[in-house]
TrEMBL record:
Keyword terms of this UniProt record: DNA-binding, Transcription, Transcription regulation
Coiled-coil blocks: none
SUPFAM superfamilies: Homeodomain-like (SSF46689), Tetracyclin repressor-like, C-terminal domain (SSF48498)
UniProt protein name: TetR family transcriptional regulator
Entry superkingdom: Bacteria
DNA-binding interval(s): 33-52
Molecular-function GO terms, alphabetical: DNA-binding transcription factor activity; transcription cis-regulatory region binding
Residue ranges of every copy of the HTH tetR-type domain listed in the record: 10-70
Length: 200
């Protein structure tokens, strides 16, 4: 049987990951088979196992890749924020960063949040550690604002989780051709987050 164009030696891990991400975001992890992923890429199903041992590992790699990219981008963005900036300035910057990063990756965001239940306990624990690293960066800002008397908070951990959930939820409804431009939406969300931390 002739080899398909783009198969075996020509196929790359990123192509497999991209196809898997699209299909899982569209249909859900449980409904997607390795055969479907192979068909999407244009290869025989057996070729996928050159790049991943099984579907669970593929899912984990997709989710870990998203978190690694998020943490790397956050480190780069935070490096541009002056250490002497006020907690409020740092909070506003975090809001804008989170919105921009996640809106560019709606499929990765959907899979990373909705498919946690399909990870093995070991993989779930590894992902949760990465998520806590990111959440802790926001909580540090909230703690510093509370300590400085700028923010009025009763529980920084719950507020952190609530803010991240609110910001991430933007990916479920935002459209580039929507009623408001992204810059205005960012201003509205910045105001909502300020209200959540007791800043008028």
């Amino acid at each position: 049987m002739a080899r398909k164009t783009g198969s075996h030696g020509d196929i790359t891990g990123p192509k497999v990951h991209a196809a898997a991400l699209r299909l899982i975001a569209r249909h859900g992890f449980a409904a997607v088979s390795m055969r479907q992923i192979a068909h999407e890429v244009g290869v025989q199903a057996g070729a996928l196992y050159r790049y991943t041992p099984d579907k669970q590992t593929l899912l984990f790699d997709l989710m870990r890749g998203h978190m690694d990219a998020l943490l790397a981008a956050r480190a780069a963005a935070a490096g541009g924020v002056a250490v002497f900036d006020t907690p409020l300035i740092r909070l506003d910057e975090f809001v804008r960063f989170h919105i921009r990063f996640h809106l560019e990756r709606p499929d990765a965001v959907f899979v990373s949040y909705m498919e946690l239940r399909n990870l093995t306990p070991e993989n779930f624990a590894a992902l949760e550690a990465l998520r806590r690293d990111y959440e802790d960066q926001l909580e540090v800002i909230l703690l510093s604002g509370a300590a400085a008397g700028e923010f009025g908070l009763t529980d920084t951990k719950i507020t952190t989780l609530a803010i991240i959930a609110m910001l991430t939820g933007l990916t479920t409804w935002y459209r580039e051709d929507g009623r408001l431009p992204l810059t205005q939406i960012e201003r509205i969300y910045t105001g909502l987050v300020r209200g959540a931390v007791g800043v008028s």
